[in-house]
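User: two proteins, same treatment. go.

Assistant:
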Amino acid sequence: QVQLLESGGGLVQTGGSLRLSCSASKNILTIYAMGWYRQAPGKERELVAAINSGGSTNYADSVKGRFTISRDSTRNTVYLQMNNLKPEDTALYYCNGGLSITRPSPHDYWGQGTQVTVSA
């Protein structure tokens, strides 16, 4: 069983920045894809950003140019640098490990979530 642990969420004002971290219990290079999803109250979970073992990335249109996903395989950690945050970015952010950078799969691994709140 692979365990994922998120950290770095918090409360910021519009235009501020946060960096989320996701630490995995195994070498992330053995997991095909790692990514970040978010879910706001009453909304469906959506892909924010993902990266695969070859370095290919995928971003939601709403975060392109503002968010950057990266990885540090020596620390088994993936990061999400979030700049120029907007109130619509407010959500619970989940780390994901699985088979695709475009969509989740039934046997994916998930973290417990970290809350990001952006005030107007």
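Protein 2:
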Amino acid sequence: QVQLVESGGGLVQPGGSLRLSCAASGSRFSIYTMAWYRQAPGKQRELVASITSDGSTNYADSVKGRFTISRDNAKNTVYLQMNSLKPEDTAVYYCNRYYRPSDWGQGTQVTVSS
């Protein structure tokens, strides 16, 4: 139903930061609970963070205190600010609706390595 375009990934050193963006199409973006997911090689996709229409957030234990999810409804965009990055954060990061996921986008690669 919605198109999703992730961007902002790249190669960073441990301890570094990145901000990911997810641009979504559609006129009902503001009512959706949105989420960021990631998938590392050989592992299943896992939920990283979610944010409701009223701004309530949840985080996986592995990223709590380091990552911050936010949204700008006027721009149909969800963000993931990632600080204090660790090598185990290396993965392809995707965004999607939480309750009724649409087709998955291309994702954006995050590589944390020294």
